[in-house]
Amino acid sequence: MNQNNEFKVSNEVFTIPLVFVFLIWFIYWVEIKFGFNFNKFGVLPRTLSGFKGVFFTHFIHGDIKHLFNNTVPLTVLLMSLMYFYRAVAFKVLLYGGLLTGFFTWIIGRESYHIGASGIVYLLFSFIFFSGVIKRHYRLVAMSLITIFLYGSMIWYVFPIKEGMSWEGHLSGFLTGLLFAIIYRKHGTVREKHVFTKTDFDDMFDESGNYIPQSPEEVINEETPSINTITYKYIYKDSQE
User: Fold this and answer.
1) Fold of 3-182
2) Which of 19, 94, 139, 217 could be a cystine partner for 131, CB 3.0 to 4.6 Å?
3) CA 171 and chain centroid, separation
4) Domain residue spans of the chain
5) What value does the mean pLDDT take over residues 7-35?
6) Residue scoring higher pLDDT (11 or 203)
7) Can you list the pairs that 10-17 forms with residues at least 24 positions away whose Cβ atoms lie under 8 Å?
């Protein structure tokens, strides 16, 4: 893909993150406004009824603090994904979100797991590892910015805080790494430098050994062609 077209601001860079964030806030508003409890639509590991949470868990939040803590990094990372990795952005977001929920369903504790933090960890991991793997200078720079802003999140893939779904975080983190590897050759990649071959390079074989020229080649190089026109200049002083 042409890299000049890859790094281009489009409507999706802003609309997709804003629509996603609006949707999770709207769902929470509906839950509070009408007295619903959507926690039962979260992931309940290793149960058939809890498998529906694989599809809905990222849109459900327990309280306003939980929702707000996910909103800012979700917006920033989604914009980064849509701008720097738009060739695979929708696949990462859709398939990565489902796979994150599925991994949580497999490894999670027997409790409802809800929240968009799994998506946040998915995006964080994918953006960071993709830049490291592809080694394109812009993507590496984005990886460094990501680790600077949200590097402290890595601690929460471990069970260090009560009531937090570290399993969902770990699932998103591993899924992001997996997708970074899968899509390492998609979208923008570092261009390999191609050296221009010269006559000097023809003097050596592929192993770097010198190739002696045959006497005929030396004669042909040193002897002017019969079609060559030679000019001789005689200065005026030499004629007198």
Assistant:
1) Rhomboid-like fold (1.20.1540)
2) 139
3) 17
4) 3-182, 201-239
5) 93
6) 11
7) 10/82, 10/86, 12/82, 12/86, 12/89, 13/79, 13/82, 13/83, 13/86, 14/79, 16/78, 16/82, 16/89, 16/93, 17/74, 17/75, 17/78, 17/79, 17/82
